[in-house]
Amino acid sequence: MLCSARAARALGASLTLAWVMTIGLVVTIPFALLTGVVPHGHAAWWLLVAATGNVSGLLLEYQAVRAGKVGVVAAIVSTEGAFAATIAAVSGESLTLATALVLAAIAVGIVLASLTDDEPAQAPDVRSTPLLLALGAAACFAVGLFAAGHVSGDVPVAWVILPGRLLGVAIVGIPLAARGRLRLDRAIAPFVTATALAEVIGIACFALGARDAIGVTSVLASQFAALAAVGAFFLFGERLRRIQIAGVAVIVAGVSALAVLRA
């Protein structure tokens, strides 16, 4: 999140996404080919839905961190699991009272984290833009998680990762390259590369960890929001109000509790 924020603020969301997907594609293709498997049928369709959610979510996330505070954006994006639980409930999965209460707490945390008076001169719609983008990103990631959950146990990990990289390069990278806009400053290259590698490694580690202990894996993965908030303070000098810190804490606790309840 920290590297992607630095890259997005320097290059813009679309260009950052194009490079992240391109580098990720180069890294992932050899592993996918070594599996000797090519998903087809329903698995291929679910992978396409997962890829669409992943690419759309990253684009919205990169746009959000350009205009908003990393700590707040990261906390809201981390609620992807809560959104996924809601999608599962809508699709017919039973929703327990405890899960419903945790989802409500997460919603309260989002509201608290979004409260700010740092820039009173800005119009309300300008201040709310990062919040809406982060919520959109969480929703898109949730769709991706829901779709990937249908096939993650049936296809190799490399094929869970690869479709998103292919889609991102096809719809963002190639058009930018065709217009001669696929540029990359040397100073930003390390941040883009780190973001791309973190995306690939993170998805792979989560997929592997979830096979043995999805609850523990989900709880540990959700802690990136708190780490991002701390890192943003030291790297970008971003300070959160006490009520925003409380909101981030509620979100992190809620996401962790949700992961345990749904394990």
Tell me what you see in this structure.
The protein is mainly α and 263 residues long. The chain has one domain. Helix content is 80%, strand content 0%. It contains 11 helices and no strands. The chain has helices at residues 2-11, 13-35, 42-67, 70-77, 80-90, 97-114, 124-148, 157-178, 189-222, 224-236, 242-261. Helix 1 crosses helix 3 and helix 4 packs parallel to helix 11 (242-261). The two termini are 25 Å apart. The model is unreliable at 119-126 (pLDDT under 50).
Q: Which structural traits does this protein have?
A:
263 residues, 0% strand, mainly alpha
Q: What does the overall shape look like?
A: globular
Number of helices: 11
Tell me roughly what share of residues is in helical segments.
Answer: over 70%
What's the N-to-C terminus distance? 25 Å
Number of domains: 1
Strand-pairing-aware structural class: mainly alpha
The tally of beta strands, per DSSP, is 0
> What string, H for helix and E for strand, traces the elements in order?
HHHHHHHHHHH
For the biggest sheet, the summary is: none
Radius of gyration: 18 Å
Any low-confidence stretches, pLDDT <50, length ≥5? 119-126
Strand content: under 5%
> Mean of the pLDDT scores?
83
